[in-house]
């Protein structure tokens, strides 16, 4: 008899997505237009929910958020910052008296994941900044996540403790040891409830495998292995084994002077445990199959769109560099982010993307100044919503953009303290590119390039989004009736 | 013209970025520096194509001084071409035909206008530090080296750290460019010489971190650098810019590139009039700086 396949939480999430989609299709006829799911169309209203972080304008560098990630159920939301800290928020259970009200996210656990290190041999300081956090699917009561800085990946266990033993024989209640001679009777310690305590402990440290800076980690759908990618190499790890990893991609040339491109992001396929993709600074994405060979330098597929010769400039190479790649939940598509656009690729078509969305095309004429102030090197991330119908990415001036793939609509919102009255509806923003600026429009020249949204995350099952400005985390959700 | 000015601007900005990345926390960002070299290459391409266009447009009536000035200008152009050519050959890895078209063009121009000799030597300021003077004299005495500063492509340097003894050794396969400057120039026939990829290690930031060194810089070089810094404080703003660029070029270590960039910083009057074109900006391309480059 065939071996039963374990039901992975990915499958559960996908099943839920299908259910949600099916439900929305059947209900579409009965529901008003304004209740159409997706989130990108102007009919859906996004509301401010919460903002986390300091209110000061003076931003401490350590507080700069460097990564945001929901776990597989969306109950937990993790952020990493430049100071090497991880903060995990937990969604409160829905209030029983208000069934339509979603729970708030409150701090669940805070811990120092990485510390600054100094490599004495290379005379190099290793930054403690958390580059990526990835959650493991939950297998038991505890939660596990991987966090990485430039050189070292750590597996953290986050567990709850709500009982403690009382009544030791050899210890007093305050912890002092009793003189054994004074013990005349024996008792069995009992577990008594206590205030909930959340503990984070490092269970594995995966170190010394990367010469260059780690930019991505991705957990495999087999839940046993994961990959880590730096500028030139991708390594495959087993979650239980820390003293070795397999190198599966190596694009380092024999002569470093011949270097023409680096790896910028990598991700495992959501279902196929043998498949992963990696993007490059040249704007290409390579899909690799680990069954083909041990070293996946030869790609199975290469996705590349030919450059438009009319758009050639000094900065063509920079703006075509891909900063993020994400598979859709379905596994059929993948999305890439380069400096000015978001592209959706069908895995079955390598020649060009199936959809291209311009994030901030008005910046094309400003590339020279953006190069001078280093903004052109900003690495924006992108994300899918739960049913792959909407994609989201960040921009400048604390703007973020959503693109509804089904209805071909896009919208721009701003994450700011001014719009942060509870449950206030976000107003779409418009940037004026022409000469005449309409009322409420913002001119390109008045955009604040220091306020950038690089990291965004979408709840896997619901219309809740987490948007990180420099040092604040905004949570928005769609309005429920 | 606009393109040329923008290109010049971009080149200085790019080099500043590379310099500042050296001191950034967390080590050199390979990705960012690679992208910056692409901008450098594009800017250079644009600049050279504009230059070639300009040199073709010879005005009909000129006095002797202007003609001589242009000669010097073009001679510098010629040498700059070789530097930049080799430099960019290295970074891109692939030899672009368009570059070499540009290179050949200015080389052809160069040939027509004749050799430079004493003029180059005269540009060396005698007031430099010993190290610089020796270097400048070297490149001055061997005048064809000025024309072919990195003429031969067979220099292959690798700096190695012995992990047991922690001794740093610079291993050179082939020979320094100083050995091969005597190569006579030929018009188009010399072109293949320049198209060969130069092996000299100017990959100042794409040096393999696996051969990384501790911040090992010979004392003499450090002193020289601090002298530059002192001078920076005293000089006026205009010179300060040049000096800053020269400092960062010194870090890069390519003697050729330094002249290229320092020349970028000066306008034509300065080039014609100044006797200090390679004063602070000529650098030791020897082993000390190579090690510094490797550490970079």
TrEMBL record, chain A:
Keywords: Repeat, WD repeat. InterPro entries: PP2A_PR55, PP2A_PR55_CS, WD40/YVTN_repeat-like_dom_sf, WD40_repeat_dom_sf, WD40_rpt. Belongs to the phosphatase 2A regulatory subunit B family. This is Serine/threonine-protein phosphatase 2A 55 kDa regulatory subunit B.
From TrEMBL, chain B:
InterPro entries: IER. PANTHER family: IMMEDIATE EARLY RESPONSE GENE. Belongs to the IER family. This is Immediate early response 5 like. It comes from Ilyodon furcidens.
């Amino acid at each position: 008899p065939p071996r039963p396949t374990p039901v992975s939480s990915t499958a559960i999430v996908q099943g839920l997505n299908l259910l949600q989609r099916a439900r929305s299709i059947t209900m579409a006829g009965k529901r008003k237009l304004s209740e159409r799911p997706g989130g990108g169309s102007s009919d859906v209203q996004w509301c401010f929910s919460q903002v986390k972080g300091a209110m000061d304008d003076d931003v401490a560098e350590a507080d700069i958020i460097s990564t945001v990630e929901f776990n597989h159920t969306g109950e937990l939301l993790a952020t990493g910052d430049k100071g090497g800290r991880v903060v995990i928020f937990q969604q409160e259970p829905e209030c029983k008296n208000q069934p339509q009200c979603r729970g708030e996210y409150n701090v669940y656990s805070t811990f120092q994941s990485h510390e600054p290190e100094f490599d004495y041999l290379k005379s190099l300081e290793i930054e403690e900044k958390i580059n990526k956090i990835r959650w493991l699917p939950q297998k038991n009561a505890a939660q596990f996540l991987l966090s990485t800085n430039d050189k070292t990946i750590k597996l953290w266990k986050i567990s709850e403790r709500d009982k403690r033993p009382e009544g030791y024989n050899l210890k007093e209640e305050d912890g002092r040891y009793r003189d054994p001679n004074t013990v005349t009777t024996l008792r069995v310690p009992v577990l008594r409830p206590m205030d909930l305590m959340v503990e984070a402990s490092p269970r594995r440290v995966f170190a010394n495998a990367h010469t260059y800076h780690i930019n991505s980690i991705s957990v495999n759908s087999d839940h046993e292995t994961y990959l880590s990618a730096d500028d030139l190499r991708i390594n495959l790890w087993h979650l239980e084994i820390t003293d070795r990893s397999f190198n599966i991609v190596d694009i380092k040339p024999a002569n470093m002077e011949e270097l023409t491109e680096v790896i910028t992001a990598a991700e495992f396929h959501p279902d196929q445990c043998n498949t992963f993709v990696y993007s490059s600074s040249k704007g290409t994405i390579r899909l690799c199959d680990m069954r083909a060979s041990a070293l996946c330098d030869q790609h199975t597929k290469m996705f590349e769109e030919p450059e438009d010769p009319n758009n050639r400039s000094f900065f063509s190479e920079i703006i075509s560099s891909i900063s993020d790649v994400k598979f859709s939940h379905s596994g059929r598509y993948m999305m890439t982010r380069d400096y000015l656009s978001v592209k959706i690729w069908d895995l079955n078509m390598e020649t060009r993307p199936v959809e291209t969305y311009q994030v901030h095309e008005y910046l094309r004429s400003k590339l020279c100044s953006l190069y001078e102030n280093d903004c052109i090197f900003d690495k924006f991330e992108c994300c899918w919503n739960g049913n792959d119908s909407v994609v989201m990415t960040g921009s400048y001036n604390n703007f973020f953009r959503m693109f509804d793939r089904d209805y071909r609509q896009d919208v721009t919102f701003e994450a700011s303290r001014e719009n942060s009255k509870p449950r206030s509806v976000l107003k779409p923003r418009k940037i004026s590119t022409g000469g005449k600026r309409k009322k409420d429009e913002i001119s390109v020249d008045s955009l604040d390039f220091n306020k950038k949204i690089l990291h965004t995350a979408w709840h896997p099952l619901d219309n809740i989004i987490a948007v990180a400005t420099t040092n604040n985390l905004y949570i928005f959700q769609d309005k429920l009736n | 013209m606009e393109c040329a000015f923008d290109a010049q601007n971009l080149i200085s900005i790019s080099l500043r970025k590379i310099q500042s990345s050296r001191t950034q926390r967390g080590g050199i960002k390979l990705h960012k520096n690679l992208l910056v070299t692409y901008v450098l290459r594009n800017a250079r391409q644009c600049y050279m194509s504009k230059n070639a266009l300009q040199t073709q447009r010879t005005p009909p009536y000129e006095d002797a001084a202007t003609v001589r000035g242009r000669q010097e200008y073009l001679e510098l152009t010629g040498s700059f071409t070789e530097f930049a050519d080799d430099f960019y050959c290295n970074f891109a890895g692939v030899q672009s035909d368009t570059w070499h078209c540009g290179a050949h063009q200015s080389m052809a121009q160069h040939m027509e206008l004749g050799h430079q000799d004493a003029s180059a030597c005269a540009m060396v300021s005698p007031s430099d530090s010993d190290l610089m003077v020796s270097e400048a004299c070297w490149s001055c005495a061997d005048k064809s080296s000025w024309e072919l500063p990195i003429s031969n492509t067979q220099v292959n340097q690798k700096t190695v750290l012995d992990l047991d003894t922690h001794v740093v050794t610079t291993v050179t396969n082939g020979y320094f460019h100083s050995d091969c400057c005597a190569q006579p120039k030929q018009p188009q026939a010399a072109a293949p010489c320049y198209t060969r990829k130069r092996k000299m290690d100017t990959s100042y930031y794409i040096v393999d971190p696996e051969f990384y060194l501790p911040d090992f810089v010979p004392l003499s070089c450090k002193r020289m650098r601090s002298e530059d810094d002192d001078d920076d404080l005293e000089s006026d703003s205009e010179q300060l810019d040049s000096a800053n660029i020269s400092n960062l070029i010194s870090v890069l270590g390519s003697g050729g590139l330094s002249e290229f960039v320092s020349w970028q910083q000066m306008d034509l009057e300065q080039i014609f009039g100044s006797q200090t074109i390679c004063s602070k900006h000529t650098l030791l391309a020897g082993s000390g700086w190579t090690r510094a480059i490797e550490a970079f």
